[in-house]
């Protein structure tokens, strides 16, 4: 699966991993796993509802999530952050 990163995602990912090389590695691991496994990835969580209807979620661990939307064989990574940062219910 091809993955495209939105400008917003890149900005948030840089900020969230700024002082943590292990977090940066975890983000890369999740992205690689998802690109090979798709929804079969161990990090895939669920389809979202409400404000994020039409999007899906990957869980990095703890409270950090990646929000993406799939268009055919392309996944567009839109946002990364905690539940409260992303306003997930």
Task: Offer a quick outline of the entry.
The chain is of the alpha+beta class. It has helices at residues 7-16, 21-37, 83-86; strands spanning 2-5, 44-47, 56-61, 64-71, 74-82.
3D architecture notes:
The protein is an alpha+beta fold and 89 residues long. 35% of the residues lie in helices and 35% in strands. It contains three helices and five strands, in the order E-H-H-E-E-E-E-H. The chain has a five-stranded mixed β-sheet with strand order 1-5-4-3-2. Strand 3 (56-61) and strand 4 form a beta hairpin. It is globular. The termini are far apart.
List the helices and strands and how they pair.
Elements: E1 2-5, H1 7-16, H2 21-37, E2 44-47, E3 56-61, E4 64-71, E5 74-82, H3 83-86
Parallel strand pairs: 1-5
Antiparallel strand pairs: 2-3, 3-4, 4-5
The SSE string, one letter per element, is: EHHEEEEH
Total of DSSP H or I helical runs spanning 4+ residues: 3
Give the oligomeric state.
Answer: single chain
Structural class designation? alpha+beta
Topology, number of strands? 5
Indicate the proportion of strand residues. 25-35%
Low-confidence stretches: none
Query: Radius of gyration, rounded?
Result: 12 Å
| Percent helix range | 25-40%
Output the strand order for the largest sheet. Answer: 1-5-4-3-2
Shape: globular
Largest sheet: 5 strands, mixed
- Tell me the distance between the termini: 28 Å
Task: List its salient traits.
3 helices, alpha+beta, 89 residues, single chain, globular
């Amino acid at each position: 699966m091809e993955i495209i990163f939105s400008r917003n995602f890149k900005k948030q990912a840089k900020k969230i991993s700024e002082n943590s090389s292990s977090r940066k590695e975890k983000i890369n691991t999740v992205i690689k796993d998802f690109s090979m496994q798709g929804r079969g990835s161990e990090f895939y969580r669920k389809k979202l509802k409400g404000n994020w209807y039409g999007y899906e979620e990957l869980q990095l661990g703890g409270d950090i999530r990646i929000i993406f939307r799939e268009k055919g064989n392309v996944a567009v990574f839109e946002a990364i952050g905690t539940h409260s940062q992303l306003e997930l219910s």
